[in-house]
Amino acid sequence: MKSGERILGVEGGGTKTAWVLIERPVAGGAEPGSQWVILDQGKLPPSNLRLTTPERLREVFAGLPREIDRAGVFLAGCGTEEDRQSLALICRDIWPNAKIVTGSDRDSGLAAALDHGDGIVVNAGSGSSVTGRRGDRIERAGGWGHILGDTGGGYFLSIEALRLILREHDLHCGEMPFTAKILQALSLNNLDELVRWAQTADKNEIAMLAPVVFEAAAGGETRVNEIVEEGAHVLCEYTEAVASRLHLLAPKVVLMGGLFYRDSIYTHAFRRQLKKNLPDARIATAERPPELGAAWLAAETPDAVTVRPKFSEKEIEDLAAALTEQRNPRSENLEKMSIHELVELFVEEEKFVQDALRAVTAELAKAIEMVTGSLRNGGRLFYVGSGSSGRIGVLDASEIPPTFGASANLVQGVIAGGVTALYRSVEGAEDKESAGALAMRERGIKNSDVIIGITASGRTPFVLGALACAKWVGATTILLTCNPTVVAGVSPAAAGTVTSTVDAGLVIALAVGPELLTGSTRLKAGTATKVALNIVSTGAMVALGKVRGNLMIDLHTTNAKLRNRAVRVVADLGQCDYESARRRLEAADWNLRAVVEKL
Fold this sequence. Notes:
Layout: E1 6-12, E2 17-23, E3 37-44, H1 54-61, E4 70-75, H2 81-94, E5 99-104, H3 105-114, E6 119-124, E7 128-134, E8 137-142, H4 154-172, H5 177-186, H6 191-200, H7 203-207, H8 210-218, H9 222-246, E9 252-256, H10 258-262, H11 264-277, E10 282-285, H12 290-300, H13 313-321, H14 339-349, H15 351-359, H16 361-376, E11 381-385, H17 387-404, E12 411-415, H18 433-442, E13 450-454, H19 461-472, E14 476-481, E15 486-488, H20 492-495, E16 500-502, E17 506-509, H21 524-543, E18 547-548, E19 551-552, H22 560-574, H23 578-587, H24 592-597
Parallel strand pairs: 1-4, 4-5, 6-9, 9-10, 11-12, 11-13, 13-14, 14-17, 15-16
Antiparallel strand pairs: 1-2, 2-3, 6-7, 7-8, 18-19
Helix pairs in contact: 1-2, 3-12, 4-9, 8-9, 9-11, 15-21, 16-21, 17-21, 18-19, 22-23
């Protein structure tokens, strides 16, 4: 950091956004605040990255100082690399000439509380989290958000108190003194109004009731005090778990956040409970605010700007060169065609799908052999893709259990961005190889599994990361692409026209050609991909003995249509009438496989 630079530190959460503008006039300063001059500071509305829209974040940040050289912006909910990049892009709109560093409020809390040292930070505000550090190792507990976690934070204490009020009313038809305090704090008149308020209130509004909860606990409300004790107990459990994982026998434990700063009852409850299992812990309340830690992190970061495009120029050039991104000369006047001409063109174009599939029959047969071998050895089949490719994979996987009576775990679809991406675009979900690798690790990939990566261009980072992770553990890997320039295990220099290689056991390249709508791979590429997956999954199920002739003998008879189909299967294979077949199935509790094996 150069002397005289103006550095902005921002820490945002569910309750507020705190900021500080500092300047370090001389070199040095080994810890937050050392030889720094605070030029200005203040507070703004909340800015949790996951709970605040980008537009609202820009509005909040617009109230911060503009003339700065560096900014460290650390927000609750900013937990992944994609989150950090998204936040950095928002910051770039506000401070186009500044060096931007982004991250989670956990990071700024660690910096403010521990400097470079080891220890554990317990943060309790509207949410909660426990973060520990020993050397370069970081361990975390809690901080999962108010829906699934944040036990011990303001939201947790408040929501538990509201439930207590209603439970008391339901069991005893009476009201606690605490009930009146809550109604008064919210300017409500009765429990019906309280319920309606809670149904529309957001996390931050509910968490703001925490002071009323602490007041009631301090005033002797026994059951409210039990809620406070439970929150402190969970935070102690998390602290002990982090200390154990880091092998810290006498850790420095720093308390941070509005609940500890505001209410001594919570600090006392935490200290008392932690001393039972970690008697040598050194507990202190943070002396420096996290926004100062945010400024320090910005000061210590090298001069390289953290904001970068999603792809390098080379990656962009490679993607543009992919066949799936080329223009189709047959549809250059698409908007000038009549509806009839457009339909004729689309139908005619489908011939390229059949040609592409026919050209890879040997590869499809090899894929069936690879999948069958893995499944026979106790492995699982994973389809991995993003966008249309991911949705097609999930669709095929979802049809396997009802069609072939297989476990839902046997064939699984993995899509970048998760379930949300099935019905809407999740921006940036496909752009990180690390995200694909993480998706594989979280599913416990092992060497008996087979992974089919699906990417029309052959270059989707999420898919390539998943394949690399699978390859590393020794799993069988297959890439399904619509870019014929992608080849497995061949050096580009040796292949001449080969422009891309993938470290997969098999590449199936469906050369369907450019789309009628340039780059829209949900068209021919999507159709060819769906058919290819149909062939591979059906072929493997046939090889595993789940078909007799061309009849499904393991289907789940879960509705009237499928029971009727099962009856017809038994009638056909058993050469009997419909009623006799039905009676056989009823006697076997509609287990089609059991009946067929006796025929």
